[in-house]
């Protein structure tokens, strides 16, 4: 559950970068898929 007061503060791009780095470098993944709900422009920008 995320606190309602953190939305729109720009945390997701940083979180996404860290998760991708962890997946590729620490876990040795070769591919990571991502998606967003159509109409959610903020999520689309994070991709």
TrEMBL record:
Gene3D superfamilies (alphabetical): 3.40.630.30
Superkingdom in the source lineage: Bacteria
InterPro entries in the record: Acyl_CoA_acyltransferase, GNAT_dom
Domain N-acetyltransferase: 7-46
Pfam family, one: Acetyltransf_3
Protein name: GNAT family N-acetyltransferase
Organism: Paratractidigestivibacter faecalis
